[in-house]
Specification:
Blueprint: E1 2-4, E2 7-12, E3 15-20, H1 102-108, E4 116-119, H2 125-135, E5 138-142, H3 156-159, H4 165-189, H5 198-207, H6 212-228, H7 232-252, E6 260-264, H8 275-294, E7 298-305, H9 306-315, H10 319-323, E8 326-328, H11 333-344, H12 357-362, H13 366-376, H14 381-398, H15 405-426, H16 434-439, E9 445-449, H17 450-461, H18 464-474, H19 480-489, E10 493-496, E11 522-525, E12 536-540, H20 564-580, H21 588-602, E13 607-617, E14 620-629, H22 634-643, E15 647-652, H23 660-667, E16 677-681, H24 688-701, E17 704-708, H25 710-722, H26 728-741
Length: 742
């Protein structure tokens, strides 16, 4: 987009649109004059090469051309925006819908030097990972589980200094594990290479077949053990292995090798936010950077949420090294418009131009519609897609030939409810049950003075339910300054000072510090949450202590009629029972009961009518579980469509080693009536031998078995207790199996 004084020009392919006059500062002054009725008889597709907008108001957003256009008959009914969550979006297999942002360009360019792609949820990290996996040449996706360690071999205090031996040992171990993974990729395509350096051959023979996390643990144990024993010679040998292998990899690629890229995603699935996990993640990030910068044909790309990256940056004395390799997932208005236009165009044979022409074709009042969408959305693709999708559905239900401004307004409440739920889910791991605290704003004002926030905090501390479920983090943020900073950091409020417009935090790693907070500061709740919370347009200066908090109406019913406290207590009981449960026949009945509780407590939104499925074996009654799959969206809906899984069977095995008979038995559960998807809950780790059995079930039964181990069950329980509802973990487990079988 090229801006000059007097005009704003948007280039779309070979065409240029003079969109609007601009003032001396480059600000668009968009004016639209009413079209006469004869303009409605214009051609079906946009033909003019230049469109000038004139008329009555100024829009501080991307200008939208208002040339009269006519949609093909039934075009509104054929719109398929696609899923707003990249994990479930089959549209991402179509390369034409991707917007080529600076972040995507950096991911495609091995010479960019960018390793860490940082942004909030919904900013396009997983979409970039999918694009690179499909089009990046030599790539492999890994989802590490190592960032939730149950213990470390060194004291946390010794690992705190990133320049000392204990921390550098972690970096060395992770770097060696990453290098073996890259060598494994190379060897998979060059199995007949006979002139391997001896050290590379040894690494491949000994460690290439190991699971990535187990390989990391193995290397960590070796180097940390030497350090703990005070064996300097052994430690030096172990520490130099990664460097020596890197030198041999340089020699291996001296003849010219294509870049081999590891795409590392979804690390927050397993990360509990503990200090140990943070230390491991920090060391892993340093290992990713060293691997990418020191081996010419090797590259790692790590996709990480901004709230996690902020914690790493806060504790890492060497974070400046990492920041040179960071890409922020920021979006501007023009790019967001293109995200929607590319998807609106998908169903058309002859497509409209980008830069506003497509939006104009589908929306009856394009300026007001686009302005409304931007006003209510935070600047990320997921928000824009959800809002637009809701407006499209409203138009389809009303039988409109174009999407009207009333359709856009009708979509607003549904969008607001969705964004409020997603905000609580996004930060549930950092601030358990934060949605409960945010819900206490229900029915109050949309803006608060410093004193208004003080009185709100006092009321929170008098709320027994909030203290019970959120006290672990609420007490640490009890001062108005810290509480305002927290709300600012999660994107719930902006900070307003001296009568200026409120400032909201950026979506990426830049500009994360809030403006100064003082007793003259006001905070304003973001517009996208106003409808969900039924906020009044008023400035709150004080809340009476005796005034009851309102109760938000969008919180869903919990299973068994539990309130929030009873629900949390039930999950705590199941988690403690699982931790203490013995393996084998002695604990088999209790394990079956625990799996049933996991289904009822963690998957009640998608799986209902959960019943026992009993059978006899060896003189003992064995209970499995069957649940009706009633999901309308997300992971379970995709499973129902793909495998006809209107019923889902959960098989329970209270042991850590599975046999061929276990997998053979599962194939008998699959049918055309109930579906061909079975969950296998067991207590051990995945082993390479299991994938052969899983592959045979796919081939012979056209079905799928999803193994879930004890760690997975604990993650489901922990996330449910914290208020997280997104199905990203089970989706990732499924995707991981699919990748191994393909």
């Amino acid at each position: 987009m090229l801006c000059t004084q007097g005009a704003l020009t948007c280039s779309v392919g070979p065409r240029s649109y003079a969109l609007a006059p601009v003032d001396a500062g480059g600000t668009p002054v968009v004016r639209r004059k009413r079209r006469d009725k004869q303009r409605k008889a214009s051609t079906e597709f946009p033909a003019p090469t230049e469109v000038t907008l004139e008329a009555e108001k100024t829009i501080p957003h991307v200008p939208v051309p208002a040339a009269s256009t006519k949609l093909p008959k039934g075009a509104i009914g054929r719109i398929k925006i696609g899923q707003s969550f990249a994990e479930y979006d089959s549209a991402l297999s179509d390369l034409s819908i991707y917007v080529h942002t600076p972040a995507l360009s950096s991911a495609q360019d091995p010479e960019s030097g960018k390793v860490f792609f940082v942004g909030r949820r919904g900013t396009g990290k997983t979409a970039i990972r999918k694009y690179c996996d499909q089009n990046g040449g030599q790539t492999r996706v890994i989802v590490p589980e190592i960032f939730s360690p149950s213990s470390t071999l060194q004291e946390k205090g010794l690992l705190a200094n990133t320049r000392q031996r204990p921390f550098r040992s972690l970096v060395s171990a992770f770097r060696r594990a990453l290098q073996v993974e890259i060598l494994s990729m190379w060897h998979q395509r060059h199995p007949a290479h006979f002139e391997l350096p001896s050290d590379i051959a040894g690494e491949l023979e000994s460690f290439a077949e190991m699971d990535f996390d187990l390989r990391c643990l193995h290397f960590i144990s070796r180097i940390s053990g030497a350090l703990a024993d005070g064996d300097d010679e052994k430690w030096l040998i172990e520490n130099k292995v990664a460097k020596n292998i890197a030198e041999s990899m340089k020699v291996l690629g001296s003849g010219g090798l294509a870049t081999h890229t590891l795409l590392i995603d979804s690390i927050d699935d397993y990360w509990e936010g503990s200090d140990e996990g943070l230390i491991y993640l920090t060391a892993f990030m340093h290992a990713c950077l060293e691997t990418s910068t020191q081996i010419p044909w090797a590259r790692t790309i790590l996709f990480v949420r901004e709230n996690i990256f902020e914690r790493v940056r806060a504790r890492d004395m060497e974070s400046s090294r990492l920041e040179t390799a960071v890409v922020g997932m920021e979006w501007n208005d023009r790019q967001l418009l293109e995200v929607v236009e590319r998807r609106l165009n998908r169903g058309l044979t002859a497509k409209f131009g980008l830069g506003g022409s497509t939006w104009n074709a589908f929306f009856e009042d394009p300026e007001d519609s686009w302005g409304s969408v931007l006003e209510y959305c935070q600047k990320r693709p997921r928000d824009i897609l959800i809002y637009t999708s809701n407006a499209v559905e409203a138009a389809q239900n009303s039988g409109h030939e174009k999407i009207t401004i009333d359709d856009v307004r009708q979509a607003r409440r549904r969008f607001s409810d969705n964004r409020f739920r997603d905000l609580g889910d996004e930060y549930a791991e950092n601030y358990p049950k934060i949605s409960l605290v945010l819900s206490r704003f229900y029915g109050l004002g949309n803006a608060y003075t410093f004193g208004g926030i003080e009185s709100f905090i006092r009321k929170l501390h008098n709320d027994a339910e909030v203290v019970r479920l959120c006290g672990s983090w609420l007490h640490d943020n009890a001062s108005p300054e810290k509480f305002i900073r927290l709300l600012y950091n999660i994107g719930f409020v902006g900070i307003r000072a001296n009568g200026k417009l409120p400032k909201f935090r950026a979506l990426g790693p830049q500009d994360t510090s809030p403006p100064p907070v003082s007793d003259t500061t006001d905070v304003v709740i973001h517009r996208c949450y106003w409808d969900a919370l039924d906020l009044q347009e008023s400035l709150v200066r004080d809340l009476p202590v005796d005034k009851e908090f309102g109760r938000i109406g969008i919180i869903e019913d919990l299973p068994n009629g539990f309130d929030e406290s009873e629900y949390a207590d039930s999950i705590d009981l199941v988690m403690s029972s699982l931790k203490e449960l013995p393996l084998g026949p002695e604990g088999a009945t209790d394990f079956e009961e625990i799996v049933g509780d996991v289904i009822k407590l963690c998957f009640f939104r998608a799986l209902g009518n959960v019943e026992e499925k009993s059978r006899s074996q060896g003189g003992r009654v064995i209970r499995d579980w069957i649940a009706a799959n009633r999901a309308q969206i997300g992971f379970w809906e995709s499973i129902r469509v793909k495998y006809g899984a209107v019923q889902v069977i959960w098989e329970c095995k209270n042991y850590d080693n599975l046999s061929a008979d276990d997998f053979h038995q599962l194939s008998y559960y699959m049918s055309d009536v109930g579906g061909r998807f079975v969950v296998l809950a067991f207590r051990g780790e995945m082993k390479p031998a299991y994938f052969g059995h899983l592959d045979r079930i796919v081939t012979n039964n056209n079905g799928f078995v999803l193994p879930l181990n004890e760690k997975d069950l604990m993650i489901f329980l922990r996330q449910a207790r914290n208020g997280k509802v997104k199905e990203d973990h089970i989706q990732e487990r499924y995707d991981n199996i699919v990748r191994k079988l393909s």
